[in-house]
Automatic annotation (TrEMBL):
This is Methionine aminopeptidase. It comes from Senna tora. One of its GO terms (biological process) is proteolysis. A divalent metal cation 1 binds at D215, D226, E352. One of its GO terms (cellular component) is chloroplast. GO terms for molecular function: initiator methionyl aminopeptidase activity; metal ion binding; metalloaminopeptidase activity. Cotranslationally removes the N-terminal methionine from nascent proteins. The N-terminal methionine is often cleaved when the second residue in the primary sequence is small and uncharged (Met-Ala-, Cys, Gly, Pro, Ser, Thr, or Val). A divalent metal cation 2 binds at D226, H289, E321, E352. It catalyses: Release of N-terminal amino acids, preferentially methionine, from peptides and arylamides.
Length: 368
């Protein structure tokens, strides 16, 4: 769960007047087309002769035909990415009261406080018992997420999804980690269309053509398992489907470079490279994080190109959870201090897995 960016107060953040920290902007990365240099020459002219204007234009086009073709191809690709039917902007519905959790279920330490917890500076590296408990928590989170996805259809409210997810989690003897985290009022995050993350379930009905990210974290036997996925609601446009597909691919490419000794910055590099092929933006403000007995800890996982130092260690667990947008990566946080939408109203998608670093790669724990 990408709560982390709201909490980090280290060198990678700059001060902000809001309750949410923002990552320092990285240098802009633009895609350019480069080839062998082309030398242009003029036909030899005598005296004050000049080449007719029409002839000059034709000559220029011949010399730059390849560059022009590449430019047109790129423009068409970008048009294909950003062309999506304009939908009414997301509006907040009514938020129902917080759901109860049976007294016998262990709670994380932050539940009784509305203060946003600090990020733990300790990396979470587990022994065999800890890994077994992480697997159990993550497997439950994955099952809950899959169930939540079956509920997505037009006319269903995000509040109904939250209620069903809440019940499944407590029936399994676990606590829904978001509930009470820094005052968050619900058991799951539901982020629709232009909502990047941290959407609060409410009375809004899902509409045909919506996309919705459902972010599930459970606290089971003292360990958090964290995962999310973007689902389709009804008949979703091809442009939106492509955004969702590429976002999932970005997460997978980020996971693929992980192993004992690998640098954290490789994750952002791989994700950015793949997103840029399709003209999508990678949101910088929200990040992945260490997860285990503590909900959010170091390492902070940046999904964009960066110079972050540090290497992965065998036995370590953390999340990779990129958010991609069709347009601006800038965002606006609603007055509820959680719901964060794209500044230009363009659609956003997110996927997330909790992974375990092994000697030769990474094991995805949030599967079932």
């Amino acid at each position: 769960m990408a709560f982390t960016a709201s909490l980090v107060h280290s060198a990678i953040l700059k001060p902000s007047s809001s309750s949410h920290g923002e990552l320092l902007p990285s240098s802009s990365n633009s895609t350019s087309f480069m080839g062998a240099p082309v030398t242009l020459s003029r036909p030899a002219l005598s005296g004050n002769q000049t080449l007719p204007r029409k002839q000059l234009v034709v000559f220029s086009r011949k010399m730059s035909g390849l560059e022009e073709a590449i430019r047109i191809k790129r423009e068409r690709e970008l048009q294909g990415v950003t062309k999506v039917k304009k939908r009414p902007p997301l509006r907040r519905g009514r938020v129902s009261p917080r759901l109860p959790v049976p007294d016998h279920i262990p709670r994380p330490p932050y539940v009784d406080s509305n203060i946003l917890p600090e990020i733990s500076s300790e990396y979470q590296i587990h022994d065999s018992e800890g890994i077994a408990r992480m697997r159990a928590a993550c497997e439950l989170a994955a099952r809950v997420l899959n169930y939540a996805g079956t509920l997505v259809r037009p006319s269903v409210t995000t509040n109904e999804i939250d209620k069903a997810v809440h019940q499944m989690i407590v029936d399994a003897g676990a606590y829904p980690s978001p509930l009470g985290y820094g005052g968050f009022p619900k058991s799951v995050c539901t982020s629709v269309n232009e909502c990047m993350c941290h959407g609060i379930p409410d009375s809004r009905q899902l509409q045909n053509g919506d996309i919705i990210n459902i972010d599930v974290t459970v606290y089971l036997n003292g360990y958090h398992g964290d995962t999310s996925k973007t689902f389709f609601c009804g008949d979703v446009s091809d442009a939106m489907r492509k955004l969702v597909k590429v976002t999932e691919e970005c997460m997978e490419k980020g996971i693929a470079v992980c192993k004992d000794g690998a640098t954290f910055r490789k994750i952002g590099k791989k994700i950015s490279e793949h997103a840029e092929k399709y003209g999508y933006g990678v949101v910088e403000r929200f990040v992945g994080h260490g997860v285990g007995t503590v909900f959010h800890s170091e390492p902070i996982i940046l999904h964009h190109r960066n110079d972050k130092s540090g290497c992965m260690v065998e036995g370590q667990t953390f999340t990779i959870e990129p958010i991609l947008t069709m347009g601006s990566i800038d965002c606006i946080t609603w007055p509820d201090n959680w719901t964060t939408v794209t500044a230009d109203g363009s659609p956003a998608a997110q996927f997330e897995h909790t992974i375990l670093i092994t000697r030769t790669g990474a094991e995805i724990l949030t599967t079932c």
